[in-house]
Amino acid sequence: MQAAVLEGVQKLFIKQKEIPRCKAGEVLLQVKACSICRTDLKCYELGHRDLKLPRVLGHEIAGIVVETGSGVDKYKKGDRVQVSPGISCGHCEFCLQGRDNLCRRLKIMGFNYDGGFAEYLLVPAEAVLSGVLNMIPPHLSYEEASMTEPLACSLNMQEALKITSSDTVLIFGAGRLGILNALLARNSGAKKIFVVEPLERRLEQAEKYGFAYLFNPAKSCLYREIMAITNNRGVDVVIPCCPAAEAFNSGLHLLAAGGRFGFFSGLLPGDKMKIDLNLVHYKELTMFGAYGCTSAHNKQALSLLASGALNVKKLLSQVISLEEVEKGLKMIKTLSQLSVVVSF
Asked: Cα angle vertex 342, ends 336, 344, to 5°?
């Protein structure tokens, strides 16, 4: 089989590898689609704390079962499945609380195990047993199903924030995750959703989803405009879906007293901008962190896609082959595409 193997920083090679064979409890998938994440780009350019090299990257995976090991009776050849990439221990305090994304023994496909930038993927027995494989309905494409994991991460954030119909929501970034968070906020009933994005082509993409309040901070005074719309109150919820400290800081200033801040995207290392955390104190703000997603979030996200409650077809802006994966990573870096999916 062909696989994109990362052997070091910016050392990615298309290689021929043996197709894995199933042992007891394991499942072999033929990968059909794997979306490229900014985390994949970080691994490629800088490495990652959880990354063990050499490694096949890719953790937003959809495929078809081609073989099952002995003892596997829940899945059969021909099943279309989405992969929840986290493999937790199942018995620590966080796993027992249903917060398996915080498991201290968490292993992730595409980091600790080989991921989806390959023609075949072997799902370990402990992952199969913990239920990481979710059935894709016939009407949902593999490319759409590969959006499940980023949607699940967004669900994790919004679950913490508990957005309701009375909330005014401000989202920084109209990339894939920004739009997914805006769609979820609307699905929760939020009537006023502000989306901030300096790239006009991304604002145009957000406009296709019917969001009325779109702002380019390079062309207008964001603070003045949002305060005017909210009668100088500010917003109830802020979610920065980009790693810029400027967005983080602006969000704190634009939150109303008692507002909720979703720390969804980590900050860039070395960003020198001073963040006024005293605002958390003076305005009694509440901050919520969200890291990745649980297996349950993946199931919930796939259900939303399957039911049509959220439609991600417009987010599928670029589909590439495995041989083009390095080119795809560069597309993510330059923000030239809203999303990039490796399709097999």
From this structure: 150
Is the alpha carbon torsion for 85, 87, 90, 94 positive or negative? negative
pLDDT over 80 at 50, yes or no: no
The confidence score (pLDDT) of residue 272 equals: 63
For residue 259, what is the DSSP state?
A: E
SS3 83: strand
Helix (H/G/I), strand (E/B), else coil: 143: helix
Structure tokens at 12: 């990615």
Average the pLDDT over 292-314 and give the result. Answer: 96
Cβ pair 245, 268 in contact under 8 A: yes
Rounded to two decimals, the pTM is 0.94
Do 150 and 35 contact (CB within 8 A), yes or no? yes
Cα 41 to Cα 169, 240, 248, distances in angstroms: 29, 19, 22
Cα–Cα distance measured from residue 162 to residue 256, given in angstroms and rounded to the nearest whole number? 16
318-320 and 80-83 beta bridge pairing: unpaired
CB 130 within 8 A of CB 87: yes
- pLDDT tens-digit profile of 100-149? 999 999 999 999 999 999 999 999 999 999 999 999 999 999 999 999 99
Tens-place pLDDT, residues 12-42: 999 999 999 999 999 999 999 999 999 999 9
Supply the Cα-derived Rg of the chain in whole angstroms. Answer: 20
Domains of the chain and any CATH numbers: 2-147+316-343 (3.90.180.10), 152-289 (3.40.50.720)
Contact 195, 203 (CB under 8 A): yes
What's the rounded Cα separation, in Å, for the pair 257 and 328? 42
Give Cα 48 to chain centroid, integer Å.
16
Strand 11-16 to 2-8 pairing = antiparallel
Greatest CA span in the chain, whole angstroms? 64
pLDDT of residue 318: 96
The answer to whether residues 6 and 57 touch, using CB atoms and an 8 Å cutoff, is yes
**Token pair in block for residue 171:** 């989202």
Calpha distance 311→322 (Å, rounded): 25
The two structure tokens encoding residue 329: 């990573």
